[in-house]
Amino acid sequence: MATERIYYRNPMQLEFDAKVVEVAPAREQFAVVLDRTAFYPTSGGQVFDTGRLLFSGHRANVIEVAEREDDGAVVHFLAPPEAATAPGPDVPGASEWLKALSVGSEVRGEIDGERRRDHMQQHTGQHVLSAAFVRLYNFATVSFHMGAESCTIDLDTPSITREQIVEAEKLANEVIWEDRQVEIRFCSVAEAKTLGLRKLPPREGEMRLIEVRDFDLCACGGTHVARTGQIGAIQIRKSEKVRQGARLEFVCGLRAVGAARKDFETLTSAAELFSTHIHELPAQIRKALDESKAASRGRAKLLEEIAEYEADKLSQSAEPHGDYVVATQIYPDRDAGFIKLVAQKFTAATKGVVLLGALDGQPTVVLSQNPALAFNCGAMIKDALAAVGARGGGPRDMAQGGTPDAAKLKVVMADLEAKLRK
C-alpha cells in the first residue's frame, strides 16, 4: 500500500502520529511501514531523513528510510534494541518490540530537525542555482546529488568558465537575499505543460511543483524551505568536467558557513607560516616556489659538477684490462640518482666499465659501460642480484638494481667485479 506522505504538502511538520501497517525484521534492522509519515525517503538526489519512533514506552531510532518500488510504501528501518546480526524474536528486547509494533498499533514519529533543515537548505539552494545557470547561460541541470558534506549538479554544457560560475553564484545569492517565497503547488500534467517548467518529468497523475517566486518553477518531490532567505547562502566549491558535462560541487546554509570557516582557518595557518596576510598568500607561495626552483637548479648544477669530478677521479684510478679499464666504488652517503649520473659521465669520457654502489636509501648497484665494449650489463646485473634473492636489470650499456641491505650489495658488487676482471 502507498503511504500518505505528510512532507509532500507540509515539509515543516517534524512530528506526527501514525498507525503500523507492516513490520518485519529486514537487513539486520526492523522494517516498519506506517499508514502516514513525515520521514522523507531517499529520492531525487536527496538523502533520507532520520529521527525516532515512539511506541508503548519504547523509543526506536530511524536510521534509514526508503521507498519500496513495487507499491510505493515508505519503509522505516529501525536500529535493533540490542546490537545483533539478525534481529529476530530471539534478540534481547526484540519480542517486546514486535509485540508493541504489531499491525494497527499507534506510533509517534519525530524527525531530526537539524538534518531536515540542512536538507531543505541544500535542495532549495540547488533549485535556485540550477535556475540561475538556465537564466544566464541556458545550461540545464541533468542530475543532482546530495552528499553528507557537499552537493553536486551536472550541467549540460561541454565547458564552463570561472566567470560563468561566479556570475551564476552571484545571481543565486541575490535571489536568496531577496527572501523570495517558495511555494508548493499541485496540478495535472496537462496544466504543467502550459506553465513553462524548467524541466518537465515524464510522469502521469498529479504533479507537485516547487515555485521560487518569479524565478523558478519545476516539478519536485523533495523538501524545501518556505522562503529563499532560509537557504542562507550558496557557495560553489569546485568544478570539473565529467562525461555528461560540467560538474559543480556546492554547499548551502550552515554547510557554507562551516566551509568558509574551515577555509579561513586553513588560510590563516598557512599565512602565519609565511608571516603575511591571507590576501598576500598567493604571492608569497609563488615567491617561495620560484626560490625553490632556483635552489633546485643550483643543486642540480652542483651535483653535475660533483659527479663529473667523481667520474674523472674514477677514470684516473681505473685498472686497465686489455683495451678497456674497470672502476668500482661504493658511496655510503649518496643515492641511486647520483651514482647513475657518475656512471653516465664516466662511460661518456672513458673507454671502460664502471661498477658503483650507493647506500643512501635502498642499497643500489649500477653497472655501466662505454658503448664500444661488449659486456651485457643488463644480463650481468640480473644474474648477480638473483643470486642474493634481489631483482634488477636494464639494457646492455647501463643497468641497475637494489638489495635489501648493504651486506648483500657488497656481495653482488664482489661477484660483478670478479667477472669484470676476468
Give a written overview of the molecule.
With 422 residues, this protein is of the alpha+beta class. The strands form 5 sheets. The protein has a 6-stranded antiparallel barrel. A 6-stranded mixed beta sheet has the order 16-17-18-19-21-20, with helices on both faces. It has 9 helices and 21 strands. Residues 83-92 have low confidence and may be disordered. The protein has 3 domains: 4-111, Elongation Factor Tu (Ef-tu), domain 3 (Beta Barrel); 116-262, Threonyl-trna Synthetase, Chain A, domain 2 (Threonyl-tRNA Synthetase, Chain A, domain 2); 315-421, Diaminopimelate Epimerase, Chain A, domain 1, CATH 3.10.310. The chain has helices spanning 94-100, 113-137, 162-177, 189-192, 253-274, 281-317, 336-349, 377-386, 406-421; strands spanning 4-5, 15-26, 29-34, 36-37, 51-55, 58-67, 74-78, 106-111, 141-146, 151-155, 182-187, 207-212, 216-219, 234-242, 245-252, 319-321, 324-331, 352-358, 364-369, 391-393, 398-402.
Summarize the structure.
By secondary structure, the chain is an alpha+beta fold. It has helices at residues 94-100, 113-137, 162-177, 189-192, 253-274, 281-317, 336-349, 377-386, 406-421; strands at residues 4-5, 15-26, 29-34, 36-37, 51-55, 58-67, 74-78, 106-111, 141-146, 151-155, 182-187, 207-212, 216-219, 234-242, 245-252, 319-321, 324-331, 352-358, 364-369, 391-393, 398-402.
How is the topology of this model organized?
Blueprint: E1 4-5, E2 15-26, E3 29-34, E4 36-37, E5 51-55, E6 58-67, E7 74-78, H1 94-100, E8 106-111, H2 113-137, E9 141-146, E10 151-155, H3 162-177, E11 182-187, H4 189-192, E12 207-212, E13 216-219, E14 234-242, E15 245-252, H5 253-274, H6 281-317, E16 319-321, E17 324-331, H7 336-349, E18 352-358, E19 364-369, H8 377-386, E20 391-393, E21 398-402, H9 406-421
Parallel strand pairs: 1-4, 17-18
Antiparallel strand pairs: 2-3, 2-8, 3-7, 5-6, 5-8, 6-7, 9-10, 10-15, 11-12, 12-13, 14-15, 16-17, 18-19, 19-21, 20-21
Helix pairs in contact: 2-3, 6-7, 8-9
